[in-house]
Amino acid sequence: MHRRALLTLGTLVAVSACSSGTGGGESDQPDKVEVFSWWDGPGESEGYSALIAYFKQQNANVQFINASVAGGAGTNARAVLASRLDANDPPDSYQIHAGLELASDVRAGKVEDLAYLYERNGWLDKFPRALLDAVTVDGKIYAVPVAIHRSNLLWYNPATLRAAGIARPPGTWAEFLADATTLKAKNLTALSIGPGWTQKHLLENVLLGELGAERYTGLWNGRTTWRSAEVTAAVETFRRVMDVSDLETYGGDWQSALDKVVAGTAAYTVMGDWADAYFGRAKGLRFTADYDVVVSPGTAGVFNFLSDTFTLPKGAPHRAAAESWLTACGSPEGQDAFSVQKRAIAARVDADKSKYNDYLTTAMAAWQDPATVVVGSLTHGVVADTERNSQLDTALAALVGGGDVAAFVASVAAMFG
Ligand code: GAL
């Protein structure tokens, strides 16, 4: 990555004091491994199955127990996991986002230092420095990233735009709102939305598009004050965008929001690039012909990143098998197998580029372009810890439920400054 991008990301994810220490399961049975994730369901399971298949091929003697709990962005899974960890019943490995979400679990003493695995496998120079920083706390490395996803994407059905006489997808949120008026005249919904986490995913990208990369990043690290006319205006834009969504009738998870774009009843949806797995893999649609994508309005040249990682929880009952799982996660073969199906980019720098086609060609080019500015996702754990993310969820639910912008801004300002 470019120096500028690295610096930006470095400031996003730098974390300070925390706890550490080793633990480990008492009984070490290498014959099974229980892995906890939220990759269950169309658009999630294809990539995960490819990674599991690679693991099984390398570890024929280990029984793989797939303890996935469905629900986009891990909202359901995280709650189940928290109660298991509280009850001292950890799985052997669990999924978590790189960045401050991981740092929350490190601080709470839930996961082990994996620096020895990095050394054993020669991984220290195989991941971008900024990504390693996002899984490092006080010099210790607590997770193995499997892939990089992009959050700031606007998906659409080209046939719907053609039918509405819209020549190209919008480059700004003002253009998006103008499109919404055109679409409304044709009885079409401008934006399809899903549950709370997809609304937050939209919020982060409206803020990014309206405020720009630097001020967006500052919202989470205290360098941009929430108490400003610009931030209020950006939140008002978010509210206007929500007003032209199908909020009142949405149901299901992120996949249902995409279904409306496929069906042509809604023109656009803002979602991360796992959407490509749903459209292209689960639904068998053709990229650019049946569905297409641009960066979300106002974010040209910016890559809003997130990274899925796996950990070794303290007290994991099958530690040796968990290490084998993490080794598969960090391997070039495991990462390519996963990412090509999940429609992500391998986290490693030595991915086999020839395997990354269609949408992923663009994603990889953007990620590797020295001019790209990298910022971190709020919803997917990079720039805010678990506690502040959940406080923000409460404030956002109030706003979306009809609360006023000033009250929302005041409550978020109290969290982030
Ligand atoms: C994100 C996760 C992605 C994808 C998405 C939808 O949080 O990082 O890999 O699964 O949620 O569930």
Automatic annotation (TrEMBL):
GO annotations of cellular component type: cell envelope
Organism domain of life: Bacteria
Signal peptide start-end: none
Keywords: Signal, Transport
InterPro entries: Bact_solute-bd_prot1 (IPR050490), SBP (IPR006059)
SUPFAM superfamilies assigned to the protein according to its UniProt record, in alphabetical order: Periplasmic binding protein-like II
Subcellular localization: Cell envelope
Pfam family membership, one: SBP_bac_1
Physiological role: Part of a binding-protein-dependent transport system for a sugar.
UniProt similarity note: Belongs to the bacterial solute-binding protein 1 family.
Protein name as annotated: Probable sugar-binding periplasmic protein
Species in which this protein is naturally found: Virgisporangium aurantiacum
